[in-house]
Every structure is written in structure tokens, then in C-alpha cells.
Amino acid sequence: MRLDVVSIFPDYLAPLDLSLIGKARRDGLVDLRVHDLRDFTHDRHRTVDDTPYGGGAGMVMKPQPWSEALDHVLGTADDASGPAPVLVVPGPGGQRFDQATARELARAPWLAFACGRYEGIDERVYEWAAQRMEVRVLSLGDYVLNGGEVAVLAMTEAVVRLLPGVVGNAESLVEESHEGGLLEYPIYTKPSVWQDGDGVTRAVPDVLLSGDHARIAAWRHEQRLERTAARRPDLLAAAATAGALADLDAS
Ligand code: 6GU
């Protein structure tokens, strides 16, 4: 998969050299290129923003550096006759980015991310870009970050780990939180009985030591339902339509 990120803070994307994404890059599974938006300005101060028409607080990112930066990205297509990238613009005003979005994006051969700062990017850039590629404005959640960079770190991690060959154990992708619409069950490791620092003895649930795989699976499913009901009741309605309600009735 090819990933391009345009930002005025390219150093913000340095963590993409680390851990799972760094390894995917070194393994040639991901071709990630970070671009400095200011390289596409032409004035001495490398200006990327200006005051909003109509008044209001803050600054707006100017259209010209964005069109030139994105034109540059488009012009470096590995296959000039191939598909354009899907352009992701992270922002609190977008559609919610969730696991289903991550799966959709993981199917695209090429993603470009436009990191806005300040109050956002001049609206004409979205119109310009939509004539050249699919544009998706995506939000991590209902809170405000200073810019898109942290969101790009989160989104690329969620997407890249779904690519074939990136996560060693494909099974670990199946049973985790949000796959299947429920949160993950609680997990334990050795020792089976742990004396905590206060002298309290804390044992692993017996069922997990029973060796009875059917009972363990049933217990874990029950735990997923209980945990989802307690922490994310909003997810249960959606999971119900996916068939989890039948399981709830049976338990
Ligand atoms: Cl994707 N961007 C910004 N700037 N703020 C956010 C966000 C994204 N998601 C939640 N808040």
C-alpha cells in the first residue's frame, strides 16, 4: 500500500518509522512518503494560512499550497494510468472513523492524508480535490485536536495492521475489540494466582484453567457481552442486528 501524508509538521509523523508500521515499511509492505506543505509555498515566509473571509476566530489554510502539494502527490503515481489515491482529510467535522472505515481504507492501494491545522482548509480545496480523487473527511471522535497529524498516526496504524503480512498472527485480528461489534473479553497470563503488593490474592477465573474449550468460549462470549453492556451500551444495539442478540437470548 502507498501512503502519502502532507503536513506543516512532517516531524509529527516520525513515529511511523517505529514498531509495526516501521517494520511494514522496511518489509516493503507500505510505501510511506511524508511531504512538507511549506515546500509548496512561494513567498519568503512560506505562508500557509490567512484570515477568514466573513470574520471569525483563527486562521484558514490557503488553497494554493494545498493544490500544489496534492498535484505533486498525484504526479508521483507509481502507475500513471492507475487509480488516484483516496484523499483522507482528518477533522472533527468529518464522519466517524471506526473499524469498518479502517477495513474500507485498507482495501485502497493508495491513501493520501491532508493534515489541516488552525481552523481548517479553504473549502475550495475540497471541491478541487473531489474532481481528482475520492475525498473522505474523517473524525476520530467528538473532541477537538489541534491538527490532523495525531489522527493520521491513529488512522494509519488502524489501517496498516489490517494489511496482509503486517500482523503476524491473523487470528489476533479476528477476536479483538470491535471486530464482531463487541469489546474484547478480559485476558490473563501466568501466574494463575498472584499476590498483589497489598497482600491480596488474585486468582485467574477457574474456567480458563479447566481445559474445556467450549466452556471457555462460552465464558469469553458472556464476558464480551457484559463488558460491552457496561462500557459501550451503544455498541450492543448494532451488535444485536449482527446476530449477537440471539446469543444473548440463548445464554
Ligand atoms: Cl481527525 N482532527 C482534528 N483536528 N480533531 C479531531 C479529529 C481529527 N478527530 C477528533 N478530533
TrEMBL record:
Function: Specifically methylates guanosine-37 in various tRNAs.
Single GO MF descriptor: acyltransferase activity, transferring groups other than amino-acyl groups
Subcellular location: Cytoplasm
Record-level GO BP terms: tRNA N1-guanine methylation
Included range, full protein: 1 to 251 of 403
EC number: 2.1.1.228
Native species: Janibacter melonis
Protein family membership: Belongs to the RNA methyltransferase TrmD family.
Subunit and interaction comment: Homodimer.
Keyword Cell membrane among record annotations: no
Binding site for S-adenosyl-L-methionine: G116, L140, G141, D142, Y143, V144, L145
Gene Ontology CC: cytosol
Keywords: Cytoplasm, Methyltransferase, S-adenosyl-L-methionine, Transferase, tRNA processing
Predominant location category: cytoplasm
Ranges in a coiled coil: none
TM ranges: none
Keyword Cell cycle appears in the UniProt entry: no
Source lineage: Bacteria, Bacillati, Actinomycetota, Actinomycetes, Micrococcales
UniProt superkingdom: Bacteria
Catalyses which reaction(s): guanosine(37) in tRNA + S-adenosyl-L-methionine = N(1)-methylguanosine(37) in tRNA + S-adenosyl-L-homocysteine + H(+)
Record's protein name: tRNA (guanine-N(1)-)-methyltransferase
Gene: trmD
